[in-house]
Specification:
- The protein has 211 residues and is of the alpha+beta class.
- The chain has 2 domains: 71 residues, no CATH class; 111 residues, Nucleic acid-binding proteins (OB fold (Dihydrolipoamide Acetyltransferase, E2P)).
- It has 7 helices and 5 strands.
- Strands 1-2-3-5-4 form a 5-stranded mixed beta barrel.
- β1 and β2 form a beta hairpin.
- α2 runs antiparallel to α3.
């Protein structure tokens, strides 16, 4: 596709002062905003960079990128780009990236937690939110919410456990929590954390893995 035709719908954006710089345009492309217009995000990024570096000269940018081909983002790459730029994934849940490395058969799902009352289990989820609380003694404890593909699970970190693991609890995970299920009334089960493991980040995962 000629760059003039390719960039024609983008030029309107470039003329908008709120989206006038290369970085904003790059973010739109990386998030798949123009996927229906042009399927190869890497190639569109190259063309767009050439366009800006040549003082928005479409003919020069076309010349600099002619004959170049680039493989479109895989589904996994799109998920990572969305996570980094939007803070959430649109294409698919981030946990799907880990299907081949997380031993899901050893984990309970969020919908099963009630059935494991007073038992020790493992749960793996993606970070949703957290709430900190100070005890009467002034110690910090944390209530963490993680989600798997079926729902959410509330995790309780009492002060001593939180003190041992707080450095791990940075970022969105995913995290595997080992602990005991507590349920005082139906529908309010949670997991009392004993140990935590943080898996590698999505970006590091796809850089080490061939999909």
């Amino acid at each position: 596709m000629p760059l003039g035709l390719l960039l024609s719908p983008l030029v309107h954006l470039f003329q908008n002062e709120s989206i006038s710089e290369n970085i904003e345009t790059e973010h739109l492309i990386r998030c798949g905003e123009f996927g229906s217009l042009y399927p190869s995000e890497p190639l569109l990024l190259m063309k767009t960079h050439s366009y800006f570096k040549s003082s928005r000269n479409k003919a020069k940018a076309e010349y600099l990128t002619q004959g170049i081909t680039a493989t479109p983002y895989s589904k996994q790459q799109r998920i990572v780009e969305e996570l980094e730029l939007l803070g959430f994934a649109v294409t698919e849940h981030p946990l799907t990236l880990y299907d081949k490395i997380i031993p899901w058969n050893q984990m309970i799902s969020s919908t099963e937690i009630e059935t494991y009352k007073d038992k020790k289990v493992k749960f793996t989820g993606w970070y949703v939110t957290n709430r900190k609380h100070k005890t009467k003694a002034g110690d910090l404890m944390v209530f963490l919410t993680l989600e798997d593909l079926r729902g959410t699970c509330d995790i309780v970190f009492f002060p001593k456990v939180f003190a041992r693991h707080w450095e791990i609890l940075q970022g969105r995970g995913p995290y595997t929590i080992k602990g005991k299920v507590q349920s005082r009334m139906k529908g309010e089960a949670n997991l009392i954390a004993e140990k935590i493991y943080k898996w590698m980040s999505p970006r590091k995962l796809i850089s080490r893995k061939t999909y």
